[in-house]
Design a protein that fits this description.
This protein has 630 residues and is α+β, with helices and mostly antiparallel strands. Helices cover 20% and strands 28% of the residues. It is built from 14 helices and 33 strands. The strands form 9 sheets. Strands 4-3-5-11-8-9 form a 6-stranded antiparallel sheet. Helix 6 packs across helix 7 and helix 9 crosses helix 10. 38% of the residues are buried.
Length: 630
């Protein structure tokens, strides 16, 4: 994963020199002075790049000109520029999860502005188009965007793109061998505004709503690809049970009467170890723009949680009828492995595996933890004490819910951590209209997340429908079996919609397991938010006896708290016939000794001075008739 790692290092490391004017020779576009030792480096010869015989992409991360804007802006500003790093979310919004880690170098004219209130901003930098890109399609690629961007070249509008990311074609507006000014106007808008922006971008900018992580939140590239027939996507599928390898390729720009073929080459440590060639095909042979070929092949060494070094690269070339190369894809890293469910058990490469899972927050916390090195440190630490499975902790995929996952997934591949990547939440989309499954936006967004995950061997599952399809008996030990569910009308309605969303994801990626977080018996397994409250040890030990003898599918404790912090109190989720959870104002009465006595016996009642202070404080609240937050 060296290529990903280099790209992200560029993204999060300042070059230490010194300068004050980012546009040398262009006084009208001067920016606020940068501190001594900080300089924006826009020399593309020093940038990370990936090249094939027919295409090239150059990372343009780094320090850009930046300034806050109003949502109705439509003219690139010439003054008042400060600087900010790409990628990274705009500072100012912090909480228990999200932390600022990047510096805004402000212009004096807006240095006192409250950045947490900024909903739109301008970005700008110079780009030099390589001369050898002549004749190619040229685009700017935004890997992850919160939430809407208008792209300008030399002050003229080139196009726009929306959350979660995409390309804007620059071909007609730039000159290979020339230098241009690339400007982006970015608006942080909620999902409702994003959906509206496809038809009415002006009205979309007026939609109000919270977006926590705003701006260019993933790598940004200049990309050149063939202007004619070309490869748009390559997906790798591997099967240990069938000893088969499938490459599923999206191709675009084919002539209606043309005949084409694909050539696939598998590379290990720079050495070609296997090649495949397909039979000829035409445009009519494509299914939704894609064509898949399966071949008998399995390497001697598999990717596994203990052997993550067993990775390969796949290169796919599109050939014309005379075997001339029309396009060659980027190298696609992959690992040969298979993860499946058999009865009550999970299997990885034929060996039964027990999942020990926690949520992973790196892509939610901020840029300091979403880079490769930080993600790897987090995953290695988790692995060191027995965790072998993580799920990304965004319980939906609305604009602002996370930063790019590219480096997190690359780190998981490299250390052997299994991952469930969250898919968009069905509840954020309208399913009532005719054709909603195709037209409500869910399929478009789900495809983005599938494409982000599809070639990472660490990603073995997709998690969905977080906390929206469960029911009151989903923890009942006599009903955890994959047969019973006990849903009420509300839960049945949600489950039906969740399964519609699942069908969309499964069509995009049939090879990965899909589960519904905290759903109880739904789909492939029985996932539970398992918080059993004050349960005696023997009852806890017997909790899964019925499942172990009668169950027909896996049970997955996707959230686990036994005991949980709140279990040391008398509050059990209900107070005066009202149910709340951690945010409740109730008598959070400590019962530390009562809980701990089952483990420590009489010595649990030998309370400490802090515990005495707590008891006196609680008694005072009771006498006053007060309630309190935990």
């Amino acid at each position: 994963m060296k290529k990903l790692r280099i790209a992200r290092v560029v993204a999060f490391t300042l070059v230490l020199t010194g300068a004050s004017n980012l546009y040398a020779g262009d006084a009208a576009r001067s920016a606020a002075a940068l501190p001594l030792g900080v300089k924006a480096v826009w020399d593309l010869s020093k940038a990370y790049r990936e090249t094939t015989p027919t295409r090239e992409q150059i990372c343009i991360n780094g320090l850009w000109l930046w300034q806050p804007a109003e949502a109705e802006s439509d003219r690139v500003p010439a003054e008042n520029w400060g600087c900010f790093k790409v990628p990274g979310c705009w500072p100012g919004i912090t909480d228990y999860m999200q932390k600022d880690s990047q510096t805004v170098y402000a212009h004096p004219n807006w240095s006192n502005r409250r950045l947490r209130d900024v909903t739109a901003a301008w970005y700008e930098r110079q780009i030099a188009i390589p001369a050898h890109w002549a004749g190619r399609r040229i685009a700017v690629r935004i890997e992850y965007l919160n939430s809407y961007a208008v792209v300008y070249m030399d002050g003229k509008k080139a196009g726009e793109t929306q959350f979660p990311g995409g390309d804007v074609d620059l071909t007609s507006m730039c000159r290979p061998g020339g230098t241009h000014r690339l400007s982006l106007f970015v608006v942080a808008m909620p999902l409702k505004g994003v959906m509206l922006s496809y038809t009415d971008s002006a009205s979309a900018r007026e939609v109000k709503g919270s977006v926590a992580r705003r701006g260019l939140c993933g790598d940004v590239y200049l990309v050149s690809t063939p202007s004619g027939p070309h490869i748009a996507d390559v997906k790798v599928d591997t099967s240990v049970r069938r000893r088969q390898f499938t490459f599923n390729t999206a191709v675009e720009g084919l002539a209606s009467d043309g005949r084409y073929a694909l050539r696939a080459r598998i590379v290990k440590d720079g050495r070609s170890i296997k090649e495949f060639a397909t039979e000829a095909f035409g445009q009519s042979d494509l299914t939704e723009g894609r064509i898949a070929f399966t071949r008998e092949w399995m390497p001697d060494k598999l990717w596994d949680i203990h052997t993550p070094q067993n990775k390969y690269d796949l290169e796919v070339s599109l050939l014309d009828a005379g075997n001339g190369v029309l396009d060659t894809s980027w190298m696609v890293p992959f690992g040969f492995r298979e993860f499946w469910i058999e009865g009550r058990d999970f299997y990885l490469n034929g060996t039964r595996i027990f999942l020990s899972a926690v949520p992973l927050d790196n892509a939610q916390v901020g840029a300091a933890l979403a880079n490769y090195e930080a993600a790897r440190e987090s995953l290695e630490r988790l692995k060191s004490f027995g965790i072998n499975f993580v799920y990304t902790h965004n319980y939906g995929c609305e604009p602002g819910s996370h930063l790019s996952f590219a480096e997190v997934l690359g780190a998981a591949d490299d250390i052997g951590m299994l991952v469930a990547l969250s898919q968009p939440h069905f509840s954020h989309y309208d399913w009532q209209a005719s054709g909603a499954d195709v037209n409500n936006g869910y399929a478009r967004h789900a495809e983005f997340y599938v494409r982000a995950a599809q070639n990472h061997p660490s990603v073995v599952a997709y998690s969905m429908s977080h906390n929206a399809t469960g029911y009151s008996e989903d923890m009942n030990p006599d009903m955890i079996d994959g047969i019973q569910d006990g849903r009420d009308t509300w839960a049945l309605r949600n489950a039906k919609t969740a399964l519609r969303a699942e069908a969309i994801v499964k069509q995009l990626d049939p090879g990965r397991i899909v589960y519904h977080h905290a759903s109880g018996n739904l789909g492939s397994m029985h996932p539970i938010n398992f918080y059993p409250n004050f349960v005696p040890i023997q009852e806890m030990s017997d909790w899964f006896e019925h499942w172990a003898t009668q169950g027909v599918k896996p049970v997955f404790l996707c959230e686990y708290g036994a005991p949980f912090t709140w279990d040391w109190t008398m509050y059990r989720g209900w107070y005066k016939e009202k149910r709340e959870f951690g945010s409740a104002a109730v008598p959070w009465e400590f019962c530390l000794a009562e809980w701990n006595a089952q483990l420590f016996g009489d010595k649990a009642f030998q309370i400490s001075e802090p515990e005495k202070a707590n008891l006196r404080w609680e008694a005072k609240q009771f006498r006053a008739g007060n309630l309190w937050h935990r």
